[in-house]
Amino acid sequence: MVGLPFGGEYDNQTVGGLTEVLTEVTTIISHYLDTVSYSLKLDISTKREVIRELASHIEDRIDELRKTGLLEEEAAKACIRLLGPAKLVARQLYEAYSQGTWRQALFASLPHILFGFLFILNWWQDIGWPIILLIMVLSTAVWGWWKGKPNWLFPWLGYSLMPVIAAGLLLLYLPRALSWVAVVFYFPLALWLFYRIITQAIVKDWLYLSLMLLPIPIIAGWFVAMEWMGEFPEHALERLHYFAPWIGVSFMALGLAVVTFVRLRRRWLKISVLFVAGVTTLSLVALYAWGRLELVIFLALLLMMVSIFLVPALLENGVRSGRWGKVFEQRPMA
Fold first, then answer.
1. What is the Cα Rg of the chain in Å?
2. Which of 41, 167, 170, 254 is the Cys-Cys partner for 112 at CB 3.0 to 4.6 Å?
3. With contact defined as beta carbons under 8 Å apart, do 259 and 104 qualify?
């Protein structure tokens, strides 16, 4: 007697025919689980556990159907039919497992909150506090990157890019004789860093790339409002002191949006919360900086806000459809 999957025992003479049937059953189940896994946008460890539980449930259900008199292949097809389309199952599983804990929500919102306090309490005036905060952000981002890139990491990654962006802006004030510094050193390193982070976020879920980039239009809006253009302004610090409380409030608003984002289950609600929070905060920037943000600039910032949702979604669609070739290396997530 030979033992085969799903609890069956068969005579050696029948093994040849049954192996072909069981291979077909395995193919059906594997294809179904692969489709669910492909459509399921959860972190790696959670996804593996969910797929493992689903496979165990399918095996138990096939055993039950076989006891009613169905053959292996018929039982497998009936089981898949009863479960429903793989994409629908993936969506239901996402809603069941995507809600983060309050601890995860707080940790994801923490960089927004810390930068909010930095401006509300005027800690930015003491150079020590911004340096300490940047060291904390960079250390947390590196630690989270090496710990498997958990979902709470992406807001920290967004703020860890701020020194890179700030360095690029400061290069605008370099004498022309030193412009080669930007070409030879800054741009290659900055592009490599952005490429690494963006590819990892896209492979995981485009929504986390949007979460990471969410503060950039807000920061750009405040930068324009303070008129830091061309020559370094004489009264930049005075303007920064005037806007500081409102800058802090805008960061706090983003922190609240991130907490809500992590705690929600439905994907469309997560997207809606981030988008509405981004547009609302950007509108508040325009309101606080009344007269300093022209309509054209505000519309450009609004377009930037829309693009941080639209572009990542299009990039992920291109990666999954294969149109982008190997530009983004898509590693299996389960």
1. 26
2. 254
3. no
Residue 334 · residue 48 · CB < 8 Å = yes
Query: Which tokens belong to 6?
Result: 């799903």
Residue 95 pLDDT greater than 70, yes or no: yes
- Per the CB < 8 A criterion, the answer to whether 160 and 137 are in contact is yes
Does the predicted TM-score (pTM) go above 0.70?
A: yes
Q: Encode pLDDT of 106-141 as tens digits.
A: 999 999 999 999 999 999 988 899 999 999 999 999
Let me know: does 157 contact 140? Beta carbons within 8 Å. Answer: no
pLDDT tens for each residue of 15-63:
344 445 457 778 888 889 998 988 888 877 788 899 999 999 998 998 8
Residue with tokens 């005037």: 242
Give the whole-angstrom CA distance, residue 271 versus residue 207.
7
pLDDT computed for residue 225 by the predictor: 81
Closest listed residue to residue 219, CA positions, set 98, 90, 111, 64: 111
Q: How many residues does the chain have?
A: 334
- The contacts of residue 141 (CB under 8 Å, 6+ apart) are 153, 156, 157, 159, 160
